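Q: What changes when 2-oxoadipic acid is included in the input?
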Amino acid sequence: MTTWTVDRAVTELLDRETTRRTGGRITDEWPELDLATGYEVQDAVLRRKVEAGQTVVGVKLGLTSRAKQERMGIDSPLTAWLTDAMVLPVGAPVPLDELIHPRVEPEIVFVLGERLRGPGVTAATALAAVRSVHAGLEVIDSRYTDFSFALPDVVADNASSARFVVGGKAVPPQRLDLALEACLLEVGGKVVATATGAAVQGHPAEALALAANALGRRGVALEAGWVVLTGGLTDAVFVEPGATVTAEFASLGSLSVTAR
Ligand code: OOG
Ligand code: MG
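A: The predicted holo structure follows.
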């Protein structure tokens, strides 16, 4: 059997994505895939996508809520990249024919008005850099069978990124108490989960600070204009063809996607 390298992991994950197939955990065959190497793979996957013409539009956090951590069996948050190819315009269907086994999760989304560079970023300084807050829905789609992975695997796989929708209603952060911002997740009009913003690291701005500090340690700043997905507030739900998933927020408005 060929040995694993960063290059091989990159090629394998990109191939799984384009051919819409899952596979086993890379850490099962390559225990040396540690967290730092996982981020090396993640960055190299991004480089390939940028070479192919995609542009970075922001970052996402993963596993920032207890609901997500418990479901995935991993208690450590992570960061990953967002590119323009992942943008799903409001009203566009979840393209089931381009994805493997997508799940949808509600998120609080920030758009930055100023550059943010760690280390030393606090929730307060993070929030001061935010231009607007939005309702969001992320469509995740793991390249691992049954969404089964260890932390370095999911880091390498860009935190199961696939598509994301950002609601059109832009609310200035000063007008919100984001810890208390309530969210109902509905499938076909039925509430299946609820949370408030406090589910995400106690406050979504803590998640933003975490991303700025983690990326700062890797020499990367969050740029003005970037979108930041702060992480699923609740567990994600599978989307059956024709099903509509709605995130209804107290102040951020309501956002739906339908799978086609
Ligand atoms: C990992 C992606 C996690 C979130 O918001 O927690 C994530 C997964 O659940 O497959 O995007
Ligand atoms: Mg997410």
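Observations recorded in class: The pocket of 2-oxoadipic acid (ligand 1) is lined by residues 60, 62-63, 68, 72, 105, 138, 140, 142, 147, 154, 159-160, 231-232 (CB under 6 Å).
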